[in-house]
């Protein structure tokens, strides 16, 4: 309740409804009523007229909303790993980079909607390994038109004698035909070509190829030349020596142990043919020849052996690993070929 004072004498009024001063009788002004809003009086007002309490409540609500919105950010900052390598107690998997991208060498295989299995990729790709078969390279075939000297391959045989006894070899002049216009046949080229075709036959029958033995070829060539000079065509020479005896005499007994079996002695194939495949005559006189090439002579020899059961058996014998071919030519243009196996 607000007290009033007399404007004339200054006496204090007693009642709020009093209209005249009790001391001097002067009229009193009307009392000023108190301002009331609802059940409570409003708090202090700001300069703009908005109550301070309303501003406080608004600030609290805005602050709460900001905390709610920034809460995930604060959680991410708390859980972010340091730059040091991840350890067993860290929240980051050791098989994954901080950005979530799989590391090189790691693949992520989903097994369900929520579970992942991480598998390390192998650093190498297994491969299947294939066995290597080492074979003696086939010597190159020299030209058949010009006489050439072909180096002989290194001998792979086991020689038992301190001093070997190589049989006489054909002289160089014996390989030239006495018929004018006859092409020259290189004996070394013919020997190597026969060797190549023999290995083709073995490969086609599932066998390993034969290595070329130069000393065994010398023994073969010696027998071919012996047949030319002494005019015979047999495995046993006029001295009664067969292939095995000739090998023993040269210091090449060819003894091979295969498990419980032992094989001894040289096996042998022989061929006799001509430089030509056919000729033409006029009044009984030969006027021309169909001269054969190195390949044609070699094919006739090998095909003839393969058509003969005994010769074919020698060519396709599994335990043979070495071969030597020796050729010699007679003055009548005959060609003798000896093939020895060990």
Structure explained in plain terms:
With 342 residues, the protein is α+β, with helices and mostly antiparallel strands. The chain contains 6 helices and 10 strands. It has a 4-stranded mixed sheet. Strand 7 and strand 8 (285-291) form a beta hairpin. Helix 2 (187-204) crosses helix 5 (294-306). The longest helix is centred in the first third of the chain and has 28 residues, at 52-79.
Which secondary structure elements does this structure contain, and how are they paired or packed?
Layout: H1 52-79, E1 106-110, E2 116-120, H2 187-204, E3 211-212, H3 214-230, H4 243-250, E4 255-258, E5 261-264, E6 267-274, E7 276-282, E8 285-291, H5 294-306, H6 309-315, E9 322-329, E10 334-341
Helix pairs in contact: 2-5
């Amino acid at each position: 309740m607000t007290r009033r004072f007399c404007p004339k004498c200054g006496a204090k009024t007693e009642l709020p409804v009093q209209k005249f001063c009790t001391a001097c009788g002067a009229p009193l002004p009307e009392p000023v009523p108190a301002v009331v809003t609802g059940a409570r009086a409003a708090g202090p007002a700001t300069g703009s007229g908005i109550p301070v309490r309303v501003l406080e409540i608004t600030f609290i609500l805005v602050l709460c909303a900001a905390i709610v919105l920034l809460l995930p950010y604060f959680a991410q900052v708390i859980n972010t790993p340091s730059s040091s390598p991840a350890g067993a107690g860290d929240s980051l998997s050791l098989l994954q980079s901080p950005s979530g991208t799989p590391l090189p060498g790691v693949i992520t295989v989903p097994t369900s909607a929520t579970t992942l299995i991480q598998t390390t990729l192998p650093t190498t790709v297994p491969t299947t390994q294939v066995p290597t078969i080492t074979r003696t390279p086939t010597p190159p075939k020299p030209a058949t038109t010009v006489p050439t000297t072909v180096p002989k391959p290194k001998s792979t045989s086991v020689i038992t004698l301190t001093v070997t006894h190589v049989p006489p070899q054909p002289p160089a002049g014996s390989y030239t035909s006495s018929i004018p216009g006859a092409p020259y046949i290189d004996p070394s080229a013919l020997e190597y070509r026969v060797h190549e075709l023999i290995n083709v036959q073995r490969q086609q029958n599932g066998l390993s190829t034969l290595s070329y033995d130069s000393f065994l070829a010398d023994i073969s060539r010696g027998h071919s030349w012996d047949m030319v000079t002494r005019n015979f065509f047999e495995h046993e020479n006029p001295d009664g020596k067969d292939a095995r005896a000739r090998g023993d005499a040269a210091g090449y007994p060819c003894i091979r142990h295969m498990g419980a079996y032992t094989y001894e002695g040289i096996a042998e194939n022989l061929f006799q043919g001509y430089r030509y495949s056919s000729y033409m005559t006029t009044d009984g006189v030969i006027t021309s020849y169909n001269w054969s090439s190195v390949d044609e002579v070699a094919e006739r020899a090998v095909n003839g052996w393969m058509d003969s059961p005994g010769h074919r058996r020698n060519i396709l014998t599994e335990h043979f690993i070495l071969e030597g071919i020796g050729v010699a030519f007679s003055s009548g243009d005959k060609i003798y070929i000896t093939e020895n196996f060990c």
